[in-house]
Amino acid sequence: MPAAAETHEHHGHSHGLVDDEIKRSREGVRAVLLSLAVLGLAALAQTAVFVLSGSVALLADLIHNFGDALTAVPLGAAFLLRSRRAEELAGLAVVMAIFVSACVAGAEAIDRLIHPNAPNHLAVLALAGAIGYLGNFAAGRVRTSAGRRLGSPALIADGDHARADAYVSLAVVLSSATVALGATVADPLIGLGITLVILRITWRSWRTVRGHAR
């Protein structure tokens, strides 16, 4: 009887672990999908404004926001697989997406410096920057809080990254203000500044993900 009881207790404990992993997986997927929806809507709104304004600073921000939204794909897959190793790999994919977005944004800013073309619809451009700020801030809170609850370094890093991007989006508001004052060259220069910030975020995210992966 004691042996049977011990076996039953052992099986009960095992089922508990499985249930916990299922709950963790579902909560992780829910957080990822919610942040994907928020960032996706913000990026789509910014795209519409970019078509009107042609701002390189805005382009740098919306490229980055689309990249942030797409990082939900490997993270969501990792949670569906219930694999810690997959989460580590998803974290590395997040870092790569950030780096690629920095390269694209930097190339566009340099091209605009060589071929100047001042943005227009400045009031709408400022609104787009505000949309980017709110979208990133909300997505960052969702990802970071869920990452802490679930003990997911990749989700925490992605949430911290999104919150940092919220302040990058404020640079778009600054760009519209400086162009309105007549400093048209400020738009590509701010685009380059955003690129440097994204590269810094890339390095910090890399250190965070690699530090937890060891």
Explained architecture:
By secondary structure, the chain is mainly α. The chain has a single domain (27-213), classed as Alpha-lytic protease prodomain-like (Up-down Bundle). Helix content is 90%, strand content 0%. It has helices at residues 2-53, 56-70, 72-81, 84-114, 122-150, 153-180, 186-213. The termini are far apart. Mean pLDDT is 76; it is low at 3-15.
In CATH terms, what is the architecture? Up-down Bundle
**Helix amount, in percent?**
over 70%
Q: Which class in CATH terms? A: Mainly Alpha
Distance between the termini: 44 Å
Number of individual domains:
1
- Determine Rg (CA atoms, Å): 21 Å
The SSE string, one letter per element, is HHHHHHH
Number of helices: 7
Broad structural category = mainly alpha
Give me the CATH fold name: Alpha-lytic protease prodomain-like
Biggest sheet record: none
Shape: elongated
Q: What is the beta-strand fraction?
A: under 5%
Summed over residues and divided by their number, the pLDDT gives a mean of 76
Uncertain segments are 3-15
Based on DSSP secondary structure assignment, what is the total number of beta strands? 0
Task: Reconstruct the topology from this structure.
Layout: H1 2-53, H2 56-70, H3 72-81, H4 84-114, H5 122-150, H6 153-180, H7 186-213
Helix pairs in contact: 1-2, 1-3, 1-5, 2-4, 2-5, 2-6, 2-7, 3-4, 4-6, 4-7, 5-6, 6-7
